[in-house]
Design a protein that fits this description.
Largest sheet of chain A: 6 strands, mixed
Number of strands of chain B: 0
Distance between the termini of chain A: 28 Å
Oligomer: heterodimer
Largest sheet of chain B: none
Number of strands of chain A: 14
CATH topology of the largest domain in chain A: Rossmann fold
Largest interface: A-B, 37 and 27 residues
Number of domains of chain A: 2
CATH class of the largest domain in chain A: Alpha Beta
Strand content of chain A: 25-35%
Number of domains of chain B: 1
Chain lengths: 321, 297
């Protein structure tokens, strides 16, 4: 089995200079190659700290991070050469032109001017900045600067791209352009993308797996696993459902059966294609008049709320997985 | 890509940033234009006075001893030196020290703004994180940044030294020229290390302050305070010390006599050594503090 793109083991970070604040606590995580991985969490959850630790910009208090099998603490320069970073509030040298800053940034990665031109050309074309190459960055709009930040991060052809709120504050057209670029990078060039975002639609659209962080890792998995991992259903009936609880509860693979007026709630832990029809048959044979069957899928928003604000999540029918 | 190419790109970036940033451009103007204007005026005054003298006394030469000293183009400078009490054996140092001190002073405006922009400015402009995410080691990054700031500043100081030396050639008293051999040689060759070493102090100090400072304004205030400490130390502290402790004064006079008794090149070597110690210490402090994990926390 090949080494994952990023492997995090027991990662903790305490900032003594900030009064001993714990930013990240005992986080373990694995991110595969060519995956777009969403890292979610409220402000101050430790996302930026994690990104900085992965880049080797700050040292963890405990734990180890491996990038492409290399321990960040042991070979930080080799790790950094594999990573492209777009911080949330990234800046640029406003008095330089786009070309000049790309040349400057390329030099940091050992690229000469010709290599910078060769690599940046297609990216500038793709993101519509080709005709702005000779303009100073201070004349760029926020959206153009954000696209430039992405190009800058991709200049050295990194295998891993760490993005912190890459589309925050951008107009929908630019957001779509950025999303398209990220999809191309992941699917065609097998670049691993770690996406820190509060933009849940973005995460749903792009990410194959997500993790929710609030100092500790609250949950991690694919969107399908997280949204429907417990296969919860509701059966709407004409009349009371209480009489069916006992019969449905006896079916193998059915758990947590509850009646609520004309609704029968249940969860399936076995093969749903066999168990769910069996529940419907049982309800019909028990005298129930079935109006409808609905799978209770939680979208990312309700899932996020249930973890970040458990009380609100419970009120919305969410629960900890 | 070689280190030299990296250095070239970083120096080019510093120079472009300076030329396109109004506040830094002011520092540059102060560093270059002002000394050139002063030198130009002095040079003009010297040439003009020489012509007038030649017209009045066609048979006199520049090297006419005391006559030249009292009436020549360098008369005001010679009078000033006598007034200050510069002994003849220190005339060589006047040829090095005056341009060097003024060169450092006038390039310091540029140097301070450049060193702060290069270190704290990266924090303030949110470019530091990107820079630190590059695969360049801490030490290499620190030294390349230091050199990229120091090179333009040293060039500025050198330009000033050239101007000042040129002015000295035109306006210097004959005894200065005779004893020094060549003001240009002393000012431009021997004066360069004397100009650059104090600049290294500021680069090291600026880098050290930048690690903790969050804004250029704050760092500038701290750096300014450090700049003022030697100033007040020399103007108030040293005389007070000498007045309060006569034994120290006597010891320093002995030390001065011993130093003056040395051959000139030994004096020069010792002076460079004294200037090098703070440069090495301050660069060392800056380097030891310049660590990725300290810059972003």
């Amino acid at each position: 089995m090949s080494e994952p793109a990023i492997r995090i083991e027991g990662l903790s970070k305490v900032y003594p200079s900030k009064g001993g604040v714990t930013a990240v606590e005992d986080v373990s995580l694995t991110i595969g190659r060519g995956e777009i991985f969403g890292l979610l969490g409220p402000n101050g959850a430790g996302k930026t700290t994690m990104v900085r630790i992965i880049c080797g910009l700050i040292a963890p208090t405990a734990g180890t991070v491996y990038v492409d099998g290399l321990a960040v603490g042991d070979q930080p320069d080799a790790v950094r050469s594999r990573i492209g970073l777009v911080p949330e509030d990234a800046g640029d040298y406003k008095n330089l032109t786009l070309d000049e800053e790309l040349e400057y940034h390329g030099a940091m990665y050992g690229l000469d001017r010709a290599a910078v031109r060769r690599r940046s050309g297609p990216l500038l074309e793709l993101l519509g900045l080709r005709d702005r190459a000779g303009h100073r960055l201070k004349t760029f709009s926020r959206g153009m600067r954000r696209k430039f930040h992405l190009i800058r991060a991709l200049l050295h052809e990194p295998r891993i791209l760490l993005l912190d709120e890459p589309t925050a504050g951008l107009d929908p057209v630019i957001v779509e352009e950025v999303w398209d670029l990220l999809k191309i990078l992941a699917t065609e060039q097998h670049v691993t993308v770690v996406l820190c975002s509060h933009h849940l639609e973005e995460v749903e659209r792009l990410c194959s797996r997500v993790a929710i962080l609030r100092k500790r890792l609250l949950i991690e998995g694919s969107l399908a696993e997280l949204s429907g991992g417990d296969h919860r259903y509701r059966l709407d009936l004409l009349g009371e459902a209480a009489a069916l609880v006992e019969g449905v509860g006896r079916i193998s693979g059915v758990v947590n059966v509850k009646a609520e007026n004309g609704v029968l709630h249940f969860a399936v832990v076995g093969a749903i294609e066999q168990v769910v029809p069996e529940v419907v048959r049982c309800a019909v044979s028990g005298g129930g008049r079935v109006l409808g069957l609905t799978r209770n899928e939680r979208d990312l928003r309700s899932l996020y709320r249930s973890f970040v604000n458990p009380r609100e999540g419970a009120e919305n029918g969410g629960a900890h997985v | 890509m070689s280190n030299l190419t990296l250095l070239r790109v970083m120096v080019a970036k510093e120079i472009r940033s300076t030329l396109r940033e109004r506040s830094q451009l002011m520092g540059l103007m102060l560093g270059v234009a002002l000394p050139m204007i002063i030198a130009g005026l002095v040079f003009y005054q010297g040439v003009h006075a020489s012509r007038m003298r030649a017209a009045r006394h066609p048979t006199s030469s520049v090297a006419t001893g005391s006559a030249g000293r009292s009436r020549g183009a360098g008369a005001p400078l010679a009078a000033m030196m006598r007034m200050i009490g510069v002994p003849p054996e220190l005339m060589r140092w006047a040829a090095i020290g005056l341009p060097a001190v003024l060169g450092v002073f006038f390039s310091i405006g540029y140097l301070m703004s450049a060193v702060l922009a290069s270190f704290v400015g990266e924090k303030e402009g949110r470019t530091l994180e990107i820079l630190l995410a590059s695969p360049i080691s801490d030490g290499k990054l620190f030294f390349v940044k230091c050199v990229s700031v120091l090179l333009p500043s040293a060039c500025l100081a050198y330009v000033f030294a050239a101007c000042a030396s040129l002015a000295a050639v035109a306006a210097a008293p004959p005894e200065l020229l005779r004893m020094a051999g060549s003001a240009l040689f002393f000012g431009l060759v021997l004066g360069v290390p004397v100009m650059i070493l104090p600049q290294i102090w500021f680069v090291g100090l600026g880098a050290a302050i930048s690690v903790k400072a969050e804004t250029m304004k704050g760092a500038g205030q701290v750096l300014g305070a450090f700049f003022m400490i030697p100033f007040f130390g020399l103007t108030y502290g040293v005389p007070l010390l000498l007045q309060t402790f006569p034994a120290v004064r006597a010891r320093l006079i002995d030390l001065g006599k011993w130093w003056l008794g040395l051959p000139f090149m030994e004096q020069y070597g010792l002076a460079l050594l004294l200037l090098s110690v703070p440069a090495v210490v301050l660069i060392g402090i800056g380097r030891s503090l310049f660590r990725r994990d300290r810059m972003l926390t």
